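Inverse folding, one chain.
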């Protein structure tokens, strides 16, 4: 049980800006094992964002404005960790002429045109989807989207080769198959507890498809994974799930 709690604290420290001291510094020894707790922390992030959105709606804030403020709160809570990855891969994949230049661009902290556009598209898609989801489904939908979006990352990390000889992804290490299966299983369980079985399964399929597409692009563009690739995959999956659920749950 202590190991699970240690993994939870490590996952919280990595995936959010919440102060969560741990004894091993920025990259603790249990970081790879802590991947299994990514969907649990994701679910908690989704719950906080959902309750914020719902609270704003109940206070009389228009749905679009409530969704925008809730998404802003999500970025503050997580430090826009995955949004940064999405922007970096868009800039690198779109602006680089070869593998080396793409990786160099992805390492540049400045935001380029491709990154700005993809963030705008992603935010607009999540904004409109969240605004369209009825009150009773806001929190469950965000819990499932955030859990599944992070639950796919360990499997991607396990199966993709490294694109660089250094960097966050390589330094962090790859989870084993058991950890990846545990993360995926917890993410699916959370989705099933949050949504109807059909919406949960469709959401899981969309998360898997999103991860596959991003992984395929990463292999073609830069030869494998970086931390940005994993972060971008989370954003693609989260956005796609929210759009799916809006289409299935929105009232006519």
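Residues assigned per position:
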């Amino acid at each position: 049980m202590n190991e699970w709690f240690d993994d939870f604290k490590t996952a919280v420290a990595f995936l959010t800006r919440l102060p969560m001291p741990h004894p091993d510094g920025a990259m603790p020894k249990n970081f790879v094992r802590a991947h299994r707790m990514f969907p649990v922390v994701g679910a908690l992030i989704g719950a906080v964002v959902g309750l914020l959105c719902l609270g704003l709606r109940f206070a009389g804030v228009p749905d679009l404005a409530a969704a925008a403020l809730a998404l802003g709160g999500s970025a503050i809570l997580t430090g826009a960790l995955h949004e940064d990855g999405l922007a970096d891969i868009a800039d690198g994949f779109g602006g680089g002429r070869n593998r080396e230049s793409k990786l160099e661009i992805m390492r540049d902290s400045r935001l380029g045109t491709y990154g700005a556009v993809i963030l705008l598209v992603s935010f607009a898609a999540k904004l409109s989807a969240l605004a369209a989801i009825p009150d009773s489904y806001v929190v469950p939908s965000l819990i499932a989207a955030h859990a599944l979006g992070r639950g796919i990352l360990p499997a991607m990390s396990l199966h993709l080769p490294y694109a660089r000889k250094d960097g966050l992804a390589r330094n962090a290490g790859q989870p084993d198959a058991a950890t990846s299966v545990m993360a995926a299983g917890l993410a699916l369980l959370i989705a099933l507890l949050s949504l109807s079985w059909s919406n949960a399964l469709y959401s899981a399929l969309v998360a898997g498809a999103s991860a596959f597409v991003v992984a395929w692009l990463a292999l073609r563009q830069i030869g494998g994974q970086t931390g940005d690739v994993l972060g971008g995959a989370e954003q693609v999956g989260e956005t796609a799930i929210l759009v799916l659920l809006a289409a299935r749950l929105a009232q006519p």
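The chain is about 75% helix and 0% strand. The chain has a mean pLDDT of 93.
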